[in-house]
Amino acid sequence: MKLSVNQIQEYNNENIQTHQKEFDFLAEKLIKKGIDVAGIIEKLENFNVAIPSWALGAGGTRFGRFSYGGEPATLEDKIDDIGILNILTKSAGAISLHIPWDIPNDYNAIKEKASDHNIIFDSVNSNTFQDQLHSKHSYKFGSLCNIHKEIREQAIQHNFEVINIGEKLGSKSLTVWLSDGSNFPGQNNFQTVLNNTAESLKKIYRHMPNSWKLYIEYKPYEPNFYSTVIQDWGTSFMLAQECGERAYTLVDLGHHLPNTNIEQIVATLMNKGKLGGFHFNDSKYGDDDLTVGSVKPYALFLIFNELVYGMNTNKNNPVPAWMIDASHNIKDPLEDLLQSLEAILIAYAQALLIDQKQLEKNQYKNDVAICQEILQDAFRTDVRPLIRQARLNTNGALNPLEAFKIFKIRDYLIKERGLKSKASGL
Amino acid sequence: MKLSVNQIQEYNNENIQTHQKEFDFLAEKLIKKGIDVAGIIEKLENFNVAIPSWALGAGGTRFGRFSYGGEPATLEDKIDDIGILNILTKSAGAISLHIPWDIPNDYNAIKEKASDHNIIFDSVNSNTFQDQLHSKHSYKFGSLCNIHKEIREQAIQHNFEVINIGEKLGSKSLTVWLSDGSNFPGQNNFQTVLNNTAESLKKIYRHMPNSWKLYIEYKPYEPNFYSTVIQDWGTSFMLAQECGERAYTLVDLGHHLPNTNIEQIVATLMNKGKLGGFHFNDSKYGDDDLTVGSVKPYALFLIFNELVYGMNTNKNNPVPAWMIDASHNIKDPLEDLLQSLEAILIAYAQALLIDQKQLEKNQYKNDVAICQEILQDAFRTDVRPLIRQARLNTNGALNPLEAFKIFKIRDYLIKERGLKSKASGL
Amino acid sequence: MKLSVNQIQEYNNENIQTHQKEFDFLAEKLIKKGIDVAGIIEKLENFNVAIPSWALGAGGTRFGRFSYGGEPATLEDKIDDIGILNILTKSAGAISLHIPWDIPNDYNAIKEKASDHNIIFDSVNSNTFQDQLHSKHSYKFGSLCNIHKEIREQAIQHNFEVINIGEKLGSKSLTVWLSDGSNFPGQNNFQTVLNNTAESLKKIYRHMPNSWKLYIEYKPYEPNFYSTVIQDWGTSFMLAQECGERAYTLVDLGHHLPNTNIEQIVATLMNKGKLGGFHFNDSKYGDDDLTVGSVKPYALFLIFNELVYGMNTNKNNPVPAWMIDASHNIKDPLEDLLQSLEAILIAYAQALLIDQKQLEKNQYKNDVAICQEILQDAFRTDVRPLIRQARLNTNGALNPLEAFKIFKIRDYLIKERGLKSKASGL
Amino acid sequence: MKLSVNQIQEYNNENIQTHQKEFDFLAEKLIKKGIDVAGIIEKLENFNVAIPSWALGAGGTRFGRFSYGGEPATLEDKIDDIGILNILTKSAGAISLHIPWDIPNDYNAIKEKASDHNIIFDSVNSNTFQDQLHSKHSYKFGSLCNIHKEIREQAIQHNFEVINIGEKLGSKSLTVWLSDGSNFPGQNNFQTVLNNTAESLKKIYRHMPNSWKLYIEYKPYEPNFYSTVIQDWGTSFMLAQECGERAYTLVDLGHHLPNTNIEQIVATLMNKGKLGGFHFNDSKYGDDDLTVGSVKPYALFLIFNELVYGMNTNKNNPVPAWMIDASHNIKDPLEDLLQSLEAILIAYAQALLIDQKQLEKNQYKNDVAICQEILQDAFRTDVRPLIRQARLNTNGALNPLEAFKIFKIRDYLIKERGLKSKASGL
């Protein structure tokens, strides 16, 4: 199914008056405070987050998986799903492919379909945490870190193949997440697996086209429960430095130990020009992969404060590759992603409201209470009218989730695809 | 120093027009959605949080303490400080005394002073985690749990004395926080110290006047770092049940292990009619005792959702005794408390906005996305105009922190009390 | 395949001299200190841990599963596997069935096979965290807690069926682990789901034969990542009290928030006579389900200290139902279980060495350093000769893991069952 | 008071026979397994841990401090206390001074006293986390990171002074622990404070004599509860690299977020030649500063495994500066330190038992169970006879804690110094 711009305009017309009133009131108030409302809205219009090809099906846990109807069974279906997200929100204009789950059969057809939806191909992701049918060696005991050279080589070759596929589609970067690690003390020699990983990454880095970037993800645990080779930002940063200029650290919000100050990590990496990618989700306990902003919206806002500051300040740091990396165990994945996109834009808009000059001035005066007030004033502002206006300007839906429900999109998808279609991937 | 109602009115007049415009806009919008705005404002007007007598001086850590000028050196000064908070916010109309730090010399004078500030005496707190000058036995190895009967007796007698003081002032409840525990495996016999604690608490409970309530606080660690006798809500609840009907559990937000779902504990306790007291603060790592709402405002909102729901639903549960229990290591304590009071009212107002009927209906339909939308719609609403209106109605200041700054209250206090006055307490 | 006693004796004969020398040396030393070595060995001989029917296949994570050869594909195979564990260790003489994964086809045949291996049927486990083929209602949004009565009823009926199966096999208890909970704030009404769960459990309790016990497990998170209805021991204890005398709390080592003092929970539950079951495993981050003793052996020892003390002191508390509940993602499950059984016996033996009288005396003197010395002296003792002696006395293998390797048991199993057999279950 | 070698020999003579029997039995067993027992004992004899000058008095928490008798009130007293530790254990032959708490009055006298006790001056520690009497600027809002240049300068000058004092005493390194950070979001600009800290550290580094090393400590939180500038090993490592070759990271066991894999951090730092210093203690919740090995002895062993491996493998990494950094809130500090020294030597001896070749071989075979067995066989061995033998060889006491008690050392110290002497420092 494909939504038309007309449908959306019709829906918007029902709500436009209320919106206009709320927007005008807020804009007036903000402009009076000296805030560049038009500039903020332009930034919101231009913000795009990639959707990973594996996030459109039902997620699960080791205890099982509850399916729902109308899952996208093919890469084509997945691109259509992202097309729905994008036409509603105008902020989901990119797909991040996971290989080998989503290797295109017909590259031209796939590129055309994506182009029809105004979707570009963002970073490609390799997978060496599972064994593939017909693969010679198993990654049970590690891939790029493996003590056995032939297994490392197989994993390196897989990354070469992923780069190759990405080139055909117009991707410009490779994301490497390694689950490599150990479940028990003694299983791995920490120094050996670290050295092996460094060597493997360097080979992959050297194989990339000159215009490409390498994003190195980190994670403290799961699926290994004693150690993970790239366990924290420090290890990723060290490896990125060893690889070269176009290697960067990728931050996934859920990949941290309890109580980690993630916004400080973001600031440090941007200070060094090494924040390459950013994966959004939310969590209460571990890598829970919940809807963005559903548990800790203030932490998300504080992170966006650092991102906004860094994008203005650290010119050597590229604009990070944004992606939503969540798991949809309970909710309809499309509804979940719509909520995530909304939460991201809200946090971004709030961060853009912060008066950085006043903040700096009060930091200089050590007026801690006022510094907090400045941040919280931005966070407490109801910025939803700004986001709606940005969407209105770009022909998106005023309230995408509401539109999704009113248009009964899931019902259409079930009709098209049936109740038992199943997405490839996890 | 004492603020006058006139001063505050003058300050309000400067800002009244902007406020009125914002309030009218918000009220209209909410009323259109069927929300009882007047009812919410009435609830906000009636909400009062106790200020503990020990929270008005500079706090510190084991690594030291940085003082500031104009600290309240006497109980009289402390009541004056709370008077300032109360006249500005109209929501700090109670003091919670800590004995022996703040034993009144002249009860009538103290009561009169409090009454002048419209301040009542809330729950009284005993202290058996420190040794007092001239006390016979040390609490180094525990108080109510102590393996030595004479030490337990001394601690019980101290609680009797605290009740006695409270009665003279009009308090109606006793709060017992025990640091009792151990630093090393083997130091305590868990079963013995638990049984001792139960016996001691029962004696204290039986000594209380019939109109009094007993609040039993819990905490997982600090100042003991291996075990704490009352380590969690389950232990407190069990002990409260053993004591009797007027014994309750007291929840302090900072007293939980990482990632604890506190709102669920609140719901469980209210379901059983056993939530007696509630201590506000915020934290990122442990019992950090930071300004309320400064780190996890959404968690605070979710807790208030349960509190509001419980106050409506669980008629057998008394209205909890609210108190701010924070430590002011860096900020001016009065500024810190003003920010805390604001954050509490914001979370309360947001929780009052939740459409409980719609929520229940969508829970019944398992529409998880809409359930989340209902909560987040309330949270994302900028409720500050409602709080300002409630304060306006009761002659408080529109923006208490701003007023505090404009009136240069700290400067006056330094002039009055000097730069080196020091509060009793921690 | 089935091991013979002769094979084991032959293996033991190779190592008996070294063992005898080490045992004699240790026994002499311990007896000199006044320790009842014979009594300890008798206790070790009598200690039996149940093996769950689902733990004999390869485990996995949401990221995948790596299989190995010779997995037990039927309940008969599983009982044979436990038979191997039991003849080697003489401490694995029980199986805990998981329904519906392991419903017997022929009850008599199954009972006979178990009896041949000297294996009894321990607690039976219900499963309402997954949907079963042909079941009418889904547990996606909860089972015993579900807001919809018909779904609760289906889950209750399933528990009735599990009891029925257990009765036929000679089981005497039902273990209920509920994954019921929510992934997002607002999804559940905490009070409603708690009340529903209480009502459902009471119905199950009342349906049990009078000789049966009910074990209520708790867990803070996973597979739900915002809330779990029975999130901690306090909730389980409260529910067990509401059900009745034969309802108990079950402690699983991995089901706790970071840094929880589990040994204190054990002591509290035994003090109240409410510790019913105990699941062994180990973990570093969450419910990692690693080999017992592989990460935190000292914590295991401290827990055994409380178990030993409680079994001596709290006569109203039944002997807990012991079970290993781990996941074998990387290791051969049989090797993993042999290591777990060894670690359990080591911790048990060390705990039995503790001089409780000296400990109590030094607790009374507040000699914290000596209290610690008493525990650590027991822990630092190499008790392996005691365990070997206990096994020798009962015709088990001196070193079960070594014997397993020497006998090439896995090779035989692969020959028998093939490389691609797959266990039912997770 | 000063212990004599004769006293100790007399005490040893009482226990020598039992020891000799146990040692011979163990040595024979180990030698049969191919272990170089003599080599291990030599390593144990040569192992020395520095005692910090601030760890000899009673520690406390923000809730108070319980004193004990005979505290060392002067630097001379403190050196005497370490002298007692050293003559008993022969492994405490170094003191680490904390400035300004322990500035010598008479350098020659102090050096002579230390020399009498065979104590050398290890790394010197600066303190910019507290304000000193008469200091011009306050560190309330940071020291080396401070936004105000004059405050940074004061802190830098203080470090210069500490280096100067260290040079006079023969120290060869400076340890910098910064509490610098913030309590609230917005208080600090992360990038600014990081840059300031880097500049300040570089100035200090350049000021050091060429033979000196700089150790940069990290810590996630406390005394600041929102952010700490040097929050983790990654930040410390990055700063050390920016400073130069003789700048290193210092690991303190208690300075990590919950569940951190510390042994992997140790391995990574040694791999890069950047592990400079190591502070021992133990903890269950946060920076609890408990007796070494009292809570997680297996984790300590795993760390020592990496240290032993690194000292053999990473020749570019210097031997780390060992120090005990604990707080003695409940125990007699000298007893506490004796227990810590014992736990350190036990973990070291166990790590030395590991058969690295067998481990590597089984890692290559992916025999995870056997890898675990190799580590646990070493850990389960009762190595205390080896440690006693090492002490016997160097005229130390067989069991230092027992000797301390038998000699009634605390009683003598109380007689000498009185009940109310108080150590400088925290």
Automatic annotation (TrEMBL), chains A, B, C, D:
GO terms for molecular function: isomerase activity; metal ion binding. InterPro entries: L-rhamnose_isomerase, Xyl_isomerase-like_sf. It comes from the Bacteria. Gene3D superfamilies: Divalent-metal-dependent TIM barrel enzymes. The keyword Manganese applies. Keywords: Isomerase, Manganese, Metal-binding. This is Sugar isomerase. It comes from Abyssalbus ytuae. The lineage of its organism: Bacteria, Pseudomonadati, Bacteroidota, Flavobacteriia, Flavobacteriales.
